[in-house]
Amino acid sequence: MRFILLCALAVWFQSCTSPTDSNEDTPQAAETRTLTVEARPNAIPADGVSTMTIFVEYHVNGEPVTDSTRVILLNPMGTLNAGTIYTFGGVALDTLTADTLAGLGWLVAYADGIRDSVEIMFTE
Asked: Residue 8: inside a domain, yes or no?
């Protein structure tokens, strides 16, 4: 009788867990997010009409982010065509029109709490 009771308890305990159960106490691996912004070219004449292309790449664990992920661009000089752009295949593009004042500036890209920046130059 004890043997049957012990076998029944063993079967019952075994049914409480399965090899496919996830262990929720195990921490998930952290995601590695990379955001890279470039200005092509990085210097243009300060004539109010010249343009440069702003190129942003955004990856999570080495793979492109989901399409339509929002990227916000900020800059103190020149005029961005959109300012808020969205990824496609991990890439987002915008156009920056030159300022009329020569000088050095920065363009900052933000997405999901991370950022990158690039130096831009408007020449005389």
From this structure: no
